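Pasting two entries for a bug report.
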Amino acid sequence: DSHAPYNKNLRPKCDLPRFNVSDVDRIVWQFVRDMLSDPAMLTSGLEEARSRQDSRLAPLRQRKEIIESLLRENGEQTERLVDLFMIEAVPKEVLVERQKRLNDTAHKLKDELHLLDEQLSAEQANAAHVVELAEYANKVAGGLERIESDLNAKKLILQRLGIRVILDIEDGKKVIYIHTEILGQEAVRIA
């Protein structure tokens, strides 16, 4: 048999550095406390989140304007084509062929416009969510001392604020990336 029997005492060796969970918890919670305790930081973070969103949305809005313009132009071309047919300047075969191309183009443009509208709506919902998070953060900020020893309350706050943590090694040093939807991403280096 080419397969060795399973031995639960043999574990693969992992050479990755270890992060102390207590240290990570303490650092992340301190970051969250600092954020929640500083209304100016929250306001600034909210403004930056809006700015990031505006940057993401600008190309979508520009494309939407272009598509709407193309659809108007397509409609005008269709009207001109029908007018030319009515005065017998265009044969019926040409009318049918060009009308089909114009209709196909209009259909594709409308499909793309629909997708853009969905993307823009999703981004607007995301913006509303970030505002809700900032309001929640302001509400929670007043009761931080009461929950300092309540691990479940801290966990709930971290989840509600959408805190994500990435542990990494950079230049041989341990780094904790803390991401919030309000502030974006922050890096904290630890020894």
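Entry 2 (this is the one that rendered wrong in the viewer):
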Amino acid sequence: AASGPKDVVMILDTSGSMSKKGRFALMQKAAKWVVNTLTKYDTATVIDFSSQARAMDWGSGSTNLQKMDDVGRAKMRDYIDNLSVIGQTNMPAAFTKAFAALDATHAAGGGSGRGLAQTVILFLTDGENSADSSPVEVVKARNTADFSARVFTYSLGSDSRGSDAMMGQLACDTAGVHSKVDDGGNLEKVM
């Protein structure tokens, strides 16, 4: 996605439909693979979402992006391992939570030291948005020059076709890339 220090937000779908055809396990494995590629110069966090969105709590209620040293990567892998599936697919809530974490990190002077200039959002889902609003509108409103986040979208499974146009737009509008991964496909290779 980006070379050099970067700030990474992984948005992971934990809605009930992710329990189909091994998608949830595939997503967890790929997300932990991404964590393992991060270095002590990167910062990252996880937003998981279903009917509501949740930001990873790094301790004492902090949801800011954290350094990806050995401890940070271990905490992130543990968090990903302990996710479970239930609920619907509220995509706008996930992006709202992601940009709130970026805002808080920026306000605290955190990030990889590049002023959040290399911000990457990895968005993994198998479903269609169940909310009344669109995640595209959230990204348009919140992806300011402070971040200029590139959104890389990953549609998981054969029944995600209904959201392909929206996923493509999220990526295209932010100089990201949209990828489709069939059930049983190699998500790590695509990422």
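Dev reply: Rendering is fixed now. As a check, the viewer should reflect this: The chain is about 35% helix and 20% strand.
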